[in-house]
Design brief:
Layout (H helix, E strand, L loop, with lengths): L1 E8 L3 H12 L4 E5 L6 H5 L2 H15 L4 H4 L11 H25 L3 E4 L1 E6 L2 E5 L5 E11 L3 E3 L12 E2 L13 E5 L3 H12 L3 E6 L10 H13 L3 E4 L3 E8 L2 E6 L4 E4 L1 E4 L3 E3 L33 E3 L10 H15 L13 E3 L5 E5 L2 H6 L4 E7 L4 H6 L5 E7 L5 E7 L3 H13 L4 H6 L9 H13 L6
Parallel strand pairs: 1-2, 1-6, 2-3, 6-17, 8-15, 9-10, 9-15, 10-11
Antiparallel strand pairs: 4-5, 5-6, 7-16, 12-13, 13-14, 18-19, 19-22, 20-21, 21-22
The structure holds flavin-adenine dinucleotide (FAD).
């Protein structure tokens, strides 16, 4: 039986970073991955495929040029599902190659197969041809991620009624799609399909979507979706889902409203991928969504030598945060110095248009009773925006009236997920309004919107006390 200092279960963003960090400390590490290739949901069914799909759609449709050439402008007229898949496979191969190289370079052992605990320090891994190997370790990091939630009332068939894994294998582009769940995944796919001129109906039992975002941003985003012809059916539960034949699906909502579409994407929630781990053998329990509870600063579970990181511990369930959690968990597991996870991290929602945000929303600031002022810039006010033909996009910053510190930065529009990092730096370094007013920005750039928004707030803020 092989013995390791650390065994990491799962090779997604959390597992990968944990393993490499541990190897850099000179420990011997094994990563066990049950998927065909390393990389996790992030590389194979989540972040990277969906973002590659988005990029391909924006390129082939000519979406970014429509501000100049009109809504009917197209780069390619008949976009097919195989056009969309081609670029995805190339990107995924590169990602896997880089990751395998990182593991090899850092001398991280990898084992393909499904891991299950047999006692608190031992796992059993079933290989491809049914062979069973045992491994022990002093420490473990569970980074098994999540799987799409598939409730019984949804007649999934992998062809017309799909989850967010199946959608990547669509044989043909549908003419219409109904998407259930207006969370990040649902909203991203809804806006991507709508950019492809597929008729989209987005269904959400709650009255609102993406509640954790600033409301002014969501109002702007919602307006853009409606303006493109997307149907939003909010505030009604799904009562029934029926398939009447190939490409003919029907959803009945509470209250009787019915929605017909070629394809349905069910994107309402994910479950921790913990059932296969036999966690009883190591004394761990999961919650109703299959997730593990950890100590928020160290990522230690209730069993002291077992740590957990990434989506399996729940919120915020991002590849970006999972990577940091994996690294910090490895430091704590191995008794090395670790930094604390930052209080504020950015959220990137790769819808069309992009949304990105960091810090407090206006609603949270009001709730906390902090006196504040907002500054808003529209991308069409910037020269870069004119050059790019942008007719939408906004950046909003919120400052404390008392300290003039930046409290929140919220962006919707082209480049939002990159632009937000300027706001992130100022916010986490406790910078104030003066940073934006007093510094020179490259011109012409969309980053100029920071200066415009800061000046907008400055106009209404009391002068800086000497
Ligand atoms: C459609 C979609 C789009 C997304 N877009 C973004 C985005 O734009 N930005 C962002 O930051 N995040 C995004 N995410 C979230 C992101 O993919 C996840 O936060 C991230 O993948 C979580 O990483 P992880 O390491 O926790 O787990 P995962 O990436 O889920 O990896 C877990 C791995 O563990 C393996 N495993 C499970 N059980 C076992 C076992 N018993 N034995 C061995 N191996 C096992 C699995 O096969 C898997 O490879 C998206 C997710 C989805 C679904």
């Amino acid at each position: 039986m092989d013995k390791y200092d650390l065994i990491v279960i799962g090779s997604g963003p959390a597992g990968r970073r944990a393993a490499i960090q541990a190897a850099k400390f000179g420990r011997n590490v094994l990563v066990v991955e049950k998927g065909g290739r390393v990389g996790g949901v992030s590389v194979h069914t989540g972040t990277i495929p969906s973002k590659t799909l988005r990029e391909t759609v924006l390129n082939l449709t000519g979406w970014r040029e429509r501000g100049f050439y009109g809504r009917s402008y197209r780069v390619k007229d008949d976009i097919t599902a195989s056009d969309l898949r081609a670029r995805m496979h190339i990107t995924l191969d590169h990602e896997v190659e880089v990751l395998e190289h990182q593991f090899a370079r850092n001398k991280v052992d990898t084992m393909r197969g499904q891991a299950r605990f047999t006692d608190p320090h031992t796992i059993e891994v079933e290989g491809e041809i049914g062979e069973v190997l045992k491994f022990t370790a002093d420490k473990f990091i569970v980074a098994v991620g999540t799987k799409p939630f598939r409730p019984d009332y949804v007649p999934f068939d992998g062809e017309y009624v799909l989850d967010s894994d199946d959608i990547l294998d669509l044989a043909d582009l549908p003419r219409s799609i109904a998407i259930i769940g207006a969370g990040v995944i649902g909203v991203e796919y809804a806006s991507i399909f709508s950019a492809l001129d597929v008729h989209v109906t987005l269904i959400e039992p709650r009255d609102t979507m993406l509640d954790f975002l600033d409301k002014e941003l969501i109002a702007d985003f919602t307006h853009q979706l409606r303006d493109r012809g997307m149907a939003l059916r909010f505030g009604a539960k799904v009562e029934k889902i029926e398939k009447h034949g190939p490409g003919s699906c029907e959803i009945t909502l509470e209250g009787g409203r019915s929605i017909r579409s070629n394809v349905i994407l069910f994107a309402a929630g994910r479950m921790g991928a913990t059932p296969s781990l036999n966690l009883e053998a190591c004394g761990l329990e999961v919650d109703h969504r299959g997730r593990l509870k950890v100590e928020p600063m160290t990522f230690q579970t209730d069993v002291p030598h077992i740590f957990a990181a990434g989506d399996v511990i729940g919120f915020p369930s991002l590849a970006s945060t999972s990577m940091e959690q994996g690294r910090i968990a490895a430091c704590h597991a191995l008794g090395e110095t670790a930094y604390d996870p930052p209080e504020y991290f950015p959220y990137g929602i790769y819808a069309v248009p992009e949304i990105s945000t960091i810090g407090m929303t206006e609603e949270e600031i009001k709730e906390r009773g902090i006196p504040y002022e907002c500054g808003v810039a529209r991308f069409r006010e910037t020269s870069r925006g004119h050059i790019m033909g942008l007719d939408s996009g906004m950046l909003k910053m919120i400052f404390s009236l008392k300290t003039r510190r930046l409290l929140g930065c919220h962006i919707v529009g082209e480049g939002a997920t990159e632009l937000v990092h300027i706001g992130q730096a100022v916010l986490n370094l406790r910078g104030t309004l003066e940073y934006f007013v007093e510094n020179t920005f490259n011109y012409p750039t969309l980053a100029e919107a920071y200066k415009i928004a800061a000046l907008d707030a400055w106009n209404r803020m009391p002068p800086l006390e000497e």
